[in-house]
Amino acid sequence: MTKKEIIWREILHSAVNHKAREFTQKQVAERFGVSLSTVFHALRELRQLGIVHVTGRNFSVEDPEKFLSLWATHHAFRRAIQYTTHSDLSVREIEGLLPSSAILACYSAFRAMYGTIPADYDKVYVYADADGLQEIRRRFPSSKGYGNVTVLKSDPFLASYGLVTPPVQTYADIWNLEDWYAKDFLQRLHAAILP
Questions:
Q1: Residue 135 is inside which H or E element, if any?
Q2: 89-148 pLDDT, tens per residue?
Q3: Pair (165, 92) in one structural domain
Q4: What is the 3-state secondary structure (H, E, C) of 69-126?
Q5: Mapping DSSP to helix (H, G, I), strand (E, B) and coil, where does residue 53 land?
Q6: Would you say 54 and 44 are in contact if contact means Cβ atoms under 8 Å apart?
Q7: Which residues form the domain of 155?
Q8: pTM, 2 dp
Q9: 84 and 63: one domain?
Q10: Count of domains in the chain?
């Protein structure tokens, strides 16, 4: 993910999950080890669309729903794909065979977060670092057939949210999928994230 997306994820996650609507640009810059100008640049589009309100060094999230939709449409999901293969195993078996460092994404993340699913799914998406990718390749070697095991490149900060993508990222990821059942997951996620 780009630095802008990493910053957006943190702001949106905090605004939605922790009800934190007020931030300082310095806090965000220090959290990710970036310059204040990088944070200022990440806020530019949000400010222009009325999603955030900036006052001096502080800013507040005014419209989390619009923010979520903007990030979902700008999310560079396809560029994060680093490996796809086919497995004849069920999704539960695939999920059970993943290395412990893999971060569940998309449909698997939804199931892990909420303990239920709005529709059956037949694809597993995970984020992994280089070592995790190597281990997943060993457990799920390249095979012909439709891709139902997809590994996405993890950013350095994703693991700080736990072994499941945060709900706002799960939403942005699923938004970028073409599966017929993605819409069911999006509707349920939207209701859970923005009640």
A1: helix 130-139
A2: 999 999 999 999 999 999 999 999 999 999 999 999 999 999 999 999 999 999 999 999
A3: yes
A4: HHHHHHCCCHHHEEEEECCCCCHHHHHHHCCCCCEEEHHHHHHHHHCCCCCCCCCEEE
A5: strand
A6: no
A7: 78-193
A8: 0.94
A9: no
A10: 2
